[in-house]
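Problem statement: downstream parser choked on a complex file, so we are re-checking the raw output for the D-ribose run. The parser issue turned out to be on our end (a line-ending mismatch), but while we're here, posting the original submission so the record is complete.
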Amino acid sequence: MRIAVGSDHAGFDLKTALAKHMVDAGHQIIDVGTDSPDVEVDYPVFGLAVGQAVAEGRVDRGICVCGTGIGIGIAANKVHGVRAALVHDVTTASLSRRHNDANVICLGGRTTGMQEAVDAVDAFFSVEFEGGRHLHRLHEISDYESNGSHAGASTTTEGTTTEGTTTTDTATTERS
Ligand code: RB5
């Protein structure tokens, strides 16, 4: 698989280790930077670069790392067509593929241990999207990206406005 990797300074060490791990596993890596843990840089640059590589089809998937994985993931998700998932372990990495068809995995170099990150990435690249009931939910997102509108109804109850339908979800694999 062709994979774009990107990080800021805080994610550099983990990004470098994950890139080597993926090369050893036979994948092709495009590293969009940064190139040093010692020079402070801004994570949006690298999240957007990974997102664009995925969205433009130059790579199949992306790996983003910053201190927490949060900022670089927010940036990557601004690119049309990107579904970047912040994961912390094998469970969240696996579910991001099974339920969300995530095409970018985001990790925190300061928050996730090396082995846990490697295991999470291995899960991300070996688990497939389940489709089914999850597919129309992704279409709701892509429709919004394309049209700027969504189907959520607006209702008012005793002065409280509720947008759309509320559902409760958990990370368990048995929930819908
Ligand atoms: C950099 O200090 C840090 O803020 C950044 O790597 C990231 O954690 C932001 O979300």
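For whoever reads this later: The domain at 2-126 is CATH 3.40.1400.10 (Ribose 5-phosphate Isomerase B; Chain: A,).
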